[in-house]
Amino acid sequence: MAIDRALSDEQTKRYRRQILLQGVGEEGQLKLLQSRVLLVGAGGLGSPIALYLAAAGVGALGIVDFDRVDLSNIHRQILHGTGDVGRPKTESAMATLLRTNPDMAVTAHQERFTPANALSLVDEYDVVVDGADNFETKFLLNDAAYFAGKPYVFGGAVGFDGQASLFFPKGGGPCLRCMIPEIPPPGTVPPCDEVGVLNVLPGQIGLIQAGEVLKFILRIGKSLLGRFLVYNFLEGDFRTITVPRNPRCPLCGENPTITDLSGGYTGAPECITPPSPDE
Fold it and tell me: What is the pTM of this model?
């Protein structure tokens, strides 16, 4: 629950180690308590994002997911347990998050994220964060966030490779389409159940995404705005690629050809490994 002017004694005790940090303090903690974050996807990426945002004291978290928990999810989707198999992911996620922090507001949007509801959902929140596992949903998130003037925290994880970034044209940075103008066609990558993913990888990327959300809300540190983080688990290697604003971008460029959410988003269940931009 967000407090307008001061932290309660219980909140002060709960967040004390965080409040001690220069750049956070009581004022920063109040910002977190008053913030609203939309998470699309309560799976491998969404699990660590949601858990750490809840623990950090984000006041309101909306979770969009239409799926139910499957046994094959459990090894990496730590919001859910074996006893949750068959349960809606939003319901399982809400129960876990409220055990972690009963003082927060969690809203379950048990539905698919589509062009029909994207803007109405995004408009309700301050930051949009990506827990999706397919190209089309990620591009829809990017486009809806752009039209709503909201920051979009991107993430991807498949096999042993992960990526993360912050796209926010209103804040002077690029959008996803500045790097990849069009949605890659179906068949660009094999389905997730053929490629696989090491269980810790979405956890590592999800934590980076959660950190980007916190940095944005608190206005601290150097964000991934204009930078695309690429991580290889096997090599233990992180590198960042500069992604400038593209004046020819079809969405946020000088002569945009995409002016609404009229189509092209099918939500095909493909893993996300974006083509690497030129360094």
Answer: 0.93
Closest CA to 48 of 199, 241, 181, 149: 199
Give domain 112-242's CATH number out of 3.40.640.10, 3.40.50.620, 3.40.50.720, 3.40.50.150.
3.40.50.720
**Cβ 176 vs Cβ 138: under 8 Å:** yes
**What mean pLDDT, rounded, does the chain reach?**
92
Name the pLDDT band for 185 (thresholds 50, 70, 90): confident
Instruction: pLDDT band for 184, please (50, 70, 90 cuts).
Output: confident
Q: Is 278 exposed, middle or buried (0-12, 13-18, 19+ CB in 10 A)?
A: exposed
Tokens 């590592």 belong to 204
What tens digit of pLDDT does each residue of 220-263 get? 999 999 999 999 999 999 999 999 999 999 999 999 999 999 86
Name the strands in the sheet holding 105-109, side by side, starting at the edge strand that comes first in the sequence.
105-109, 60-64, 36-40, 127-130, 152-158, 161-167, 227-232, 237-242
Residues 25 and 47 sit within 8 Å (Cβ to Cβ): no
CA pair distance 232, 81, nearest whole angstrom: 28
- CA 43-73-110 angle, to 5 degrees, is 45
Domain range summary for the chain, segments of one domain joined by +: 112-242
Residue found under tokens 């005790």: 13
pLDDT at position 121:
98
